[in-house]
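Annotated sample (chain length 612).
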Amino acid sequence: MDVDISPAPLRGRARAPPSKSYTHRAILAAGYGNGATVHEPLVSADTQATMRAVEAFGGSVEQRDGSLVIEGFAGEPTVPEAVLDCANSGTTMRLATTTAALTDGLTVLTGDDSLRSRPQGPLLRAVDQLGGRADSTRANGQAPLVVGGPMTGGTAAIPGDVSSQFVTALLMAGAATDAGVDIALQTELRSAPYVDITLELLDDFGVTARQTGRGFSVRGRQRYRAEEYTVPGDFSSVSYLLAAGALAGESVTVTGAQPSAQGDQAIVDALDRMGGAVEWDREAGELSVSRSDLEGIEVSVADTPDLLPTLAVLGAAADGTTAITDCEHVRYKETDRVTAMAEALDRLGASVEEETDRLLVHGGASDLEGATVDGRRDHRVVMALSVAGLVAEEQTTVTGAHHVDVSFPNFFDVLADLGADLVRRQDPRVTRPGVRFNNPGRLSEDRVTNRQSEDQTVFVRPKGHVEERPVVRSIGDRALYLGNRLAADPDSLARADSPLEGETFEFVLTVSQDSQPLTTHHRPLADGPGNSWPRFEAAVDTARRLYRRDGSLLCHCKAGISRSTTVVATTIAAEEDRPFRAALDTVHEARPHAMPHPALHEQAVLYLAAQS
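Output written by the structure step:
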């Protein structure tokens, strides 16, 4: 989805969405215990990944009347039956890594292409130091990961300037180890308030953890005890509403903003220092803000990396220069947010200087003008640029706007309710809407029929990729199709005897090339000619994104069928929360000749892990 935003005044009241950070931790804490009911949680793409992780480790999560009713695994997680897909959630991957290290077997963890590029090495080494086993399948400190246990505890040395999530993951799992965990920080801790959130939540669940002279410590053999927990509002998300009010608001009030351990509360102080007309009734949890002339300031994001996109937009609309310092670690989020904001603001007409650990935004020299800017598949970049669109001249288009579902799913609904002039548009289709297939894969010598009707039916013979005509199979009950190498070829479709003559699909995904078929004929299953794992992973990511949309998706290979089969099966397993084997059986029902032998992706991940 893309969003078009034009300047408009805002007024009204909006409620702060629940905190993503607290929700992640509360879900896992309930899982570590015997269970709990989590009230007012954030239900988003990221937190749903953590819900799936708790279920994979033996717990259960049920959404009921706006709450999460969680049954835990009592500190003894079981080995997941399938690969644990953390999607785009870095928090889920870090938390699940140490949870997996408590099991008596091996867990494979992966995620989308963005998550697979994020650093995990320090956490993997910490797990090793504590008696577990953790490997990167590509030996580069990045996912996919293979993690095993049981981790018994002890002392782990980790850098503090990569991710505070490492500390959180070790503390939460450490309470369930025999010996407990002592964390020795090798460098100064960045994003320290996020660890404060963890300590606060652990205390709420009856777990004792503390800061020490050299890091943090948690005793072992503790039990998570809580029956009820209520998630506070999210100040990371509040920052966009405050910025929108400060730049375009006649009068905007944000409710549900009670004080907590969140470092991102610093947005209130930063806005006040810039001259913003902001008032905070802490007891009532209400923030009121209206448009005012802002002045540039110097502000560190060492402890508040998620505020950089918001501060950059505020700086672009302020007089003078806003210097955002201590921001190198912000480059290792869903995207390099420093570069993402520098390039996008430059495209909007702002004067920006990017340095390794600093971003300078010269607001006095900036005149924001509407343009098309890339959201970088990053929810925080999308929301910040959308705020910029409220004050830029003419229309601003932010691409990939649907990624707000990671942390603030109804962000654009809230903006619209406040009076924003915005239009949400689905991405352009690859081709025009096309044919629907019924009774696929029927073993019949009958000539293919091609009835022109609203619900067109096409019968094809299951001859696999050796068939010299387009062959298509419908998989399951969704508009998902597996085709041979001719199925999406325009020249083949144009043939007079083609069963698909004149028809196309809304989405067409080619998952291999003639030179890189990635079939089971290649041995060993390792990177090399014909086996491009990044290509395969990218194909899975693309298939999953298109599978979520309203439209027909054809997935096919130019060489062989194993790769497209595995892409489709992996997509079904991930999106429908099914074991990979069950998803593969669904594919085989329609196309029995497709043999990934038997689960190419899982086999490859485990093979590479064994070689690392």
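Annotation: Confidence is low (pLDDT under 50) at residues 427-466, 514-531, 596-600, 602-612.
Annotation: The domain at 472-611 is CATH 3.90.190.10 (Protein-Tyrosine Phosphatase; Chain A).
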